[in-house]
Design brief:
Radius of gyration: 22 Å
Largest sheet: 3 strands, antiparallel
Number of strands: 3
Distance between the termini: 47 Å
Bound molecules: coenzyme A
CATH superfamily of the largest domain: Citrate Synthase, domain 1
CATH class of the largest domain: Mainly Alpha
CATH topology of the largest domain: Citrate Synthase, domain 1
C-alpha cells in the first residue's frame, strides 16, 4: 500500500477487500461479482442484480421468482411509520425523510441478531420506495397512498406510486437500468460509511442511516439533483455554454462531472446517456438533452472532465417525471443493494475500522484554571 498523502481523502488507497464490485481502470471498467455492468444493464433486471449482490451468484428462474415474490410482499409500511412520515413537513429534504424512515423502522422491526440481516436488507429494499412516495404524496397532496402495488419489479412499483398509475414498459425499463447502474460502486463514501458503522458491530439500520447521510452530500449522490438544477437554468445551448464557462471562471464545480477514481470516463455514462436520449426522443423534447450534451462537450474541452453517472441520470429522471428533490432518494432505493452486500461482507470477516491521524495541533502544554487565563 502506498504512503498516505496528507489531506488526500484516502484517494487511491486500498482500505479493505471486496468480492462485490471491481473498478478496473485499464480494462473492463466496472463489474459486479464478475459481471460487466454494461452487460447487466442491457440484459438483466434490478432484482437479478440485488440477488447477485446478496448471494454472490445470479439466481436461476425459480430463485428469482421466489425472491421477487418475497420482495413484493414486503412493500407495506407499519401504521406508526406512516404516522411518523406524515409528521415530516413538505419542506424537509427527502433524504432526511428516508434516513428518518429507516431509523423508525429500526425501532419497530429491530435487528435482534445478525441472522436477521438478509431479511432486513430485503425489507429496506422493498420499502424505501414506499417510504419515499408515501411521504411525498402525503406532504404535497395530502393523499395517503396504498403502498402495496401489483407491479412485479421495484422499478415499476416506484414509478406506479409516484404516478398513481402503472408506468409504461419503456419507463419501467429506463428506471430498472438506472437502478442497476446505481446499485453498487466499491468503497464510495456512503458504502465506506456503512462499513465503518458495521465494523463496530452496530445494527443494520444504523449502518444504513449513516450511509444515507453520506450519500446526501452534493459531492456524492446529491450531484444528480444539482446537475438538474444547473441544466434547467438554461433555455438553449448558447446560454449553457456561456453560463458554464462563467461558472468555471469563477472556480465553481459543475456537478455531475469528474470522479474520485475514474480518470477519463465513467463506464456507466454511455449507458444512461442512451436512455436519456431515448426518453427525450419519445417526449419530442430535445432541449434538455441537447443542453446536457453541449455541457458535456464543453467540460471535456475546457477541463478534460467527463460526465459521471449522475449527469445524464438527471435528464433521464426528468423525462421519467420524477420530482428533482427525489433524484437522490431514488439513488438510495438502488444503493441499498450495495450497502447491504457490504454490510454482510464486513460482518463476515469483521475487523473494527479505526485508522490513525497525524496530529497537527499545538505541542503539549499545561492546563491553567479559568481565572488565570489571559
Ligand atoms: N467541475 C469543475 N471543476 C472540477 C470538477 C467539477 N465537477 N471536479 C473536479 N474539478 C477540478 C477541481 O476544482 C480541482 O481544480 P484545481 O486543481 O484547479 O483546484 C481539480 O479538478 C481536482 O478536483 P478534486 O475535487 O480534488 O478532484 P477529485 O478527483 O478528487 O474529486 C469529485 C472528485 C467527484 C469530488 C469531483 O470531481 C467533484 O466534486 N465533482 C462534482 C460532484 C459530483 O459530480 N459528484 C458525483 C461523483 S460520482
Amino acid at each position: 500500500m502506498s504512503a498516505i498523502n496528507k489531506n488526500s481523502g484516502l484517494r487511491d488507497q486500498t482500505a479493505g477487500q471486496t468480492a462485490l464490485c471491481a473498478v478496473d481502470l485499464d480494462q473492463t471498467g466496472l463489474s459486479y461479482c464478475g459481471y460487466d455492468i454494461v452487460e447487466l444493464a442491457e440484459q438483466s433486471t434490478f432484482e437479478e442484480v440485488t440477488y447477485l449482490l446478496s448471494h454472490g451468484e445470479l439466481p436461476d428462474s425459480t430463485q428469482l421468482h421466489q425472491y421477487a415474490t418475497q420482495l413484493k410482499s414486503l412493500r407495506s409500511l407499519p401504521p406508526s411509520l406512516k404516522q411518523t412520515l406524515e409528521h415530516i413537513p413538505a419542506t424537509a429534504h427527502p433524504m432526511d425523510v428516508l434516513r428518518t424512515g429507516c431509523s423508525m423502522l429500526g425501532t419497530l422491526e429491530p435487528e435482534l441478531g445478525f441472522d436477521q440481516q438478509f431479511d432486513i436488507a430485503n425489507r429496506l429494499l422493498a420499502s424505501f420506495p414506499s417510504m419515499m412516495c408515501y411521504w411525498y404524496r402525503y406532504s404535497h397532496d395530502r393523499v395517503r397512498i396504498e403502498t402495496q402495488t401489483d407491479d412485479n419489479s421495484i422499478a415499476g412499483h416506484l414509478l406506479h406510486l409516484l404516478y398513481d398509475h402503472p408506468a409504461d414498459a419503456l419507463s419501467q425499463r429506463a428506471m430498472d437500468v438506472s437502478l442497476i447502474l446505481y446499485a453498487e460502486h466499491e468503497f464510495n463514501a456512503s458504502t465506506f460509511t456503512a462499513r465503518v458503522c458495521a465494523s463496530t458491530l452496530s445494527d443494520f439500520y444504523s449502518a444504513v442511516c449513516g450511509a444515507i447521510g453520506s450519500l446526501r452530500g452534493p459531492l456524492h449522490g446529491g450531484a444528480n439533483e444539482a446537475a438538474m438544477a444547473l441544466i434547467s437554468q438554461f433555455q438553449n445551448p448558447e446560454q449553457a455554454v456561456k453560463g458554464v464557462k462563467k461558472k468555471l471562471q469563477g472556480k465553481e464545480k459543475i456537478m455531475g462531472f469528474g470522479h474520485a477514481v475514474y480518470k477519463v470516463s465513467d463506464p456507466r455514462n454511455a449507458v444512461i446517456k442512451q436512455w436519456s436520449k431515448k426518453l427525450s426522443e419519445r417526449a419530442h423534447d430535445q432541449r434538455i438533452f441537447t443542453i446536457s450534451e453541449v455541457i458535456e462537450k464543453l467540460m471535456w474541452e475546457e477541463k478534460k472532465l467527463f460526465a459521471n453517472l449522475d449527469f445524464f441520470s438527471a435528464s433521464t429522471y426528468h423525462f421519467l417525471g420524477i420530482p428533482r428533490c427525489l433524484f437522490t432518494p431514488v439513488f438510495v432505493c438502488s444503493r441499498i443493494a450495495g450497502w447491504a452486500g457490504h454490510i454482510f461482507e464486513q460482518r463476515k470477516n469483521n475487523v473494527l475500522i479505526r485508522p490513525r491521524a497525524d496530529y497537527i495541533g499545538p505541542a503539549l502544554r499545561s492546563y491553567k484554571p479559568v481565572d488565570q487565563r489571559v
